[in-house]
Amino acid sequence: MVKIGYLGPRGTFTKLAVDTAFNGENKQSFGAIPECIDAVNDRQIDIGVVPLENAIEGTVQLTVDYLVHQVRLPIVAEIVVPIEQHLLVTSGFNGDLSSVGHVYSHSHAIAQCHQFLHAHMPDAELHFTSSTGKAAEMVSHSDGGIAAIGNKLAASEYGLTIYQENIHDYTNNHTRFAVLASDQEKVFIDHEVQTEKTSLLITLPSDYAGALYQVLAAFAWRNMNLSKIESRPMKTGLGNYFFIVDVNESYDDVLFPGVIAELEALGCNVTILGTYPVYHMDI
């Protein structure tokens, strides 16, 4: 049986994505993103699912940096799910938000609910946890006076009450999750493919005027659509960066080899992080 790991504990959005994409497989939660990625690399699990990017808060930098600097695992699929954040309290909550002195959740979730917190709970102290599921777990063990921000699964898993639904600032909020596996043949997602994508890691030559422009031009004149380009530090000194480029098409034997050859001629280093299907799902 295929074993799937995800950022846990129970009740996270990653768990929701896994439950929606994979039915019946053996699933294991991990307390941190690096732990899940390492487990795939060490063959403790077959597939790992970790958050990659949120539409409001941007890239999950820990995921990207760990895949680039620590463990090079291919992205074999991408799952996109809508994000709905709710205020979760214990069943005995008295209904007075002013009595809630502390709110717990992942940093992205708290940032996504800034307007609600500012308007209704301005005096509450905000605490960051490793996941929304972890925040719900902490609140479930409390005697009151604290709340969590999380999803309906978290409320169900930990016996919490949804005091206020949909407290996020923006309605069109989605998160992309990367599906990682050493053996792509073990990954089966029985859903409609929305599109195909290829992700590249590009390192520019140093002291080369106009290098980034020439990199983008290599894609542009071939009419290859880039859905994302993002820079991240190489961690080798100030001013040294690599670029993650997402191309909205699968790898082929003509366009991509041509792009790579052109970029390498400019002195760039190019690594393919994955070519994979993208699934948009309702949860």
From TrEMBL:
Top EC class for this record: lyase
Gene3D superfamilies according to UniProt: 3.30.70.260, Periplasmic binding protein-like II
Pathway membership, UniProt: Amino-acid biosynthesis; L-phenylalanine biosynthesis; phenylpyruvate from prephenate: step 1/1
EC identifiers of the protein: 4.2.1.51
Catalysed reaction, written as an equation: prephenate + H(+) = 3-phenylpyruvate + CO2 + H2O
Domain of life: Bacteria
PROSITE patterns documented for this protein: ACT (PS51671), PREPHENATE_DEHYDR_2 (PS00858), PREPHENATE_DEHYDR_3 (PS51171)
InterPro entries: ACT-like_dom_sf, ACT_dom, Chor_mutase/pphenate_deHydtase, Preph_deHydtase, Preph_deHydtase_CS
Entry keyword set: Amino-acid biosynthesis, Aromatic amino acid biosynthesis, Lyase, Phenylalanine biosynthesis
A Pfam family per the record: PDT
Domain Prephenate dehydratase: 3-182
NCBIfam families: PRK11898.1
Protein name as annotated: Prephenate dehydratase
UniProt organism field: Lentibacillus halophilus
Lineage: Bacteria, Bacillati, Bacillota, Bacilli, Bacillales
